[in-house]
Amino acid sequence: MTTESRPNRRRLILFLLLMVLVGLNLRPALSSLAPLLLRIQVDTGLSPLAIGALTTLPVLCLGVFAPLAPWLAKRIGPERTLTLALGILIAGLLLRGTPSVPSLFIGTLLAGAAIGIAGTLLPALVKRELPGGADLMTGVYTMALCLGGALGAGLSIPLADLLGGWRFSLISWGLLAGIALVAWVSLMPRTPRAITTPQAGGSMRELLGQPLAWQVMLLMGTQSSLAYIVFGWLPTLLQSRGYSEAEAGWLMGASVMVQLVSALGAPWLARFGRDQRPALLLVLGCVASGLWLLLQADIQWRWPGVVLLGLGQGGSFSLALTLIVLRTANSRLSGKLSGLAQGGGYTLAAMGPLAVGVLLQLEVSLDAITLVLLLIVAAAAAFAMLAGRNRRLDLDKSGKLFTH
Known about the structure:
Residues 11-392 form the Major facilitator superfamily (MFS) profile domain. By secondary structure, the protein is an all-alpha fold. It contains 17 helices and two strands. The chain has a two-stranded antiparallel ribbon with strand order 1-2.
């Protein structure tokens, strides 16, 4: 090993560890809320529709604020932008635990905005630091997201019981975010080269003219809609089948924990084929099967349902993020496509939790809600057939964006 390669290797290992630590913080703010919704509703008197808005708000913020990430990275650098996002996340986590209903919504908004910015930055940072293995390293990052989501879902009720209320349970996740902020500020990779290095071509307007960019965005939106419906409403739907709030929370937490396996394995699976369509259809089929088993089949099938849903959702999200780096030729285009796919995709995804809240407000049957969820899976499969093809966005010699 040369003297020059040792610092590079240390930088790579350090970056991976920081990426995992930051990724751990990008889901507990969302998943920790769902098991506590009934307690929140009883204490605050919020209607099912208002609770639906509460679950929708952070997902909507993911979409609204994601396009800010490339803009901020260009002006203050990606490292400082991620520092800012972590600071906002901590503020949101602390604020939503204060004894005020408006603070609950404002804190949730801030947390969603911070996650939208940070989540958009990380795929482009991965592409910059690991251009040759960006797809596989995206799987590692996705695994960290899934682990954070599982911890948030599984520990929210025990933390509420231990700390004396749901407000303290929500606040407690600020500690993990604080650790990530300190580690990032102290150890973040510093480079004079930003994600959005000056380069002709590849503007957002040009990107919007590429069907491939829309296909990736719509796939991201539909599969994310299912993910945030699960984060926001699965415990409530399970409780309507007779599960206790603790068991419903643990079932969702176990499902998110299973996502670790497919989040890491799906990018490897996708490499075996010429394109990613077979892998995408496989994981989406698991999502459909898991949802049906949990919401419609006999209660004895709950654990196979948990496993299938976890494998499907971990794999579909990991592959959707992987497509951002596989469908672009460089980190600049990855940053642009990440902003579009996550910005537009999460805005679309926010309609899912809100729709379920409306259906519950109207006292629609669980059978009808299950059908709606399966239709969303079908839409995701249709977009997967387009986005999963072996194509890529690139710039020609004149700097014009094209697909090949």
